[in-house]
Amino acid sequence: MDEASSCGSGGGFRPGVDSLDEPPNSRIFLVISKYTPESVLRERFSPFGEIQDIWVVRDKHTKESKGIAFVKFARSSQACRAMEEMHGQCLSPSDSKPIKVFIAQARSSGSHRDVEDEELTRIFVMIPKSYTEEDLRDKFKVYGDIEYCSIIKNKTTGESKGLGYVRYLKPSQAAQAIENCDRSFRAILAEPKNKASESSEQDYYSSMRQEALGHEHRVNMFPFEEQPEFPSFEKNDIRGQETISKRLSVISRVPFTQEQLYSIFDIVPGLEYCEVQRDPYSNYGHGVVQYFNVASAIYAKHKLHGFQYPPGNRIGVSFLDDGSNGTDLLRKMATQMVAAQLASMVWNNPGQQQLLASLQFGGSSGSQLPQIQTDIVLPSCKKKAPPETAVKERLFIVFNPHPLPLDVLEDIFCRFGNLIEVYLVSGKNVGYAKYADRTSANDAIATLHGKILNGVRLKVMLADSPREESNKRQRTY
């Protein structure tokens, strides 16, 4: 399309490139008769709201209309309603063909979108954790007919994460909800469920990513000037009054994709999920990132606030209140750091194991260092299977940055029942667990894979059978 030569028939004002999509989805794309004048377009579309501009695409040599036009409205809901009511209509009795009306996609994006596009009807909101789906529906049904509501919950505890989705039957209803609901909901259009690229790696990161893309997230809606922290990129800018949490808000003057956001924040271990969201009031890039532990979130905030991506564009990173107790999170982080440091000391110097065993935690005689510090919910301890029990399943365990003490490992893996033995490979950051029951082994994988315990990330997977290991090509050096 030759937009350079497209202009209003009357030579009137045309928005600059930077303002064409402000707010997003406020521009409609029309396929019309080559003989339709701008005056007819203005007459037929002005009932839907304030028209900021109309321009018709013309051949740059003959100046004749190409049968394509754009109408720019002041609000997204006005453009969506115009699309819903005018698509397939004839502009005048003399027209032999009905017109086609779509929401014009942003210049940096792909194709135009129609009435049935899920991307225009589903919104993402931040809600109190006490909200039920019925509460959510009651709050947003005033803007139109709701197809469904859903609240994002923690898979382990079943508790609400304070995030939700509302899908309307019409794009104009979703747009009105975003424009008119209380700003505390931070309502924005949600990314489509099928937009994320699939990863072939069947590990922790891809599984969490698919879970995140299937439901959640919110993002800060306010422009940069309302972000008091964004203009300052001091690395020590963690302020006393700032809420500390595992969830971060990311903002950029340049839009970014889901994959770009993931690759930036996956640099810091412990990433739980991330998602890019659209802000209907600007073309800035917005995203939400959450880590499994507060230590990773603090480190990511410290290292990536002010990071230039792409070069010349600084991203702003700030904490989002996720409803957690900041003091309790910091206490857990400190305990994990101490436990990890002591475990590393013992691993690097086995001669100090006796010293560590003699340490008293909390000063009470006979008390021991808490063995397991983690955010996940573990089952209660169960008895081990007899050593002579037949092995039904072996698990391969990878530790980062160092192995956990053997007694801690046994405490962790025996909680799934039927554990025969757990052991470490000398000089390596790996180990094995033997189970007398496949279900217990699978439960251990589902609960522990990708999780952080005592400051150490575990990768837990099925081990190759001894026969398969013996058939592997041996190293020749």
Number of strands: 17
The SSE string, one letter per element, is: EHEEHEEHEEHEHEHEEHEHHEHEEHEEH
Largest sheet: 5 strands, antiparallel
- Net shape: elongated
Q: Would you identify the regions where 5 or more consecutive residues have pLDDT less than 50?
A: 1-13, 195-241, 355-370
Strand order across the biggest sheet? Answer: 14-15-13-17-16
Question: Could you tell me the strand content as a percent range?
Answer: 15-25%
- Amount of helix: 25-40%
The tally of helices reads: 12
Average of the residue pLDDT scores: 76
Structural class: alpha+beta
Please, what is the oligomeric state? single chain
Q: What is the CA-CA span between the terminal residues?
A: 62 Å
Q: Gyration radius, to the nearest Å?
A: 29 Å
Describe this structure in words.
By secondary structure, this protein is α+β, with helices and mostly antiparallel strands. It has helices at residues 38-45, 76-86, 133-140, 171-180, 204-215, 258-265, 294-304, 326-348, 353-358, 406-413, 438-448, 466-471; strands at residues 27-31, 51-58, 65-73, 100-103, 122-126, 146-153, 160-168, 188-189, 247-252, 271-277, 285-291, 316-320, 393-400, 419-424, 430-435, 452-453, 456-462. A hairpin with a 6-residue loop joins strand 6 and strand 7. 36% of the residues are buried.
Comma- or semicolon-separated keywords:
477 residues, alpha+beta, four-stranded antiparallel β-sheet, 26% helix
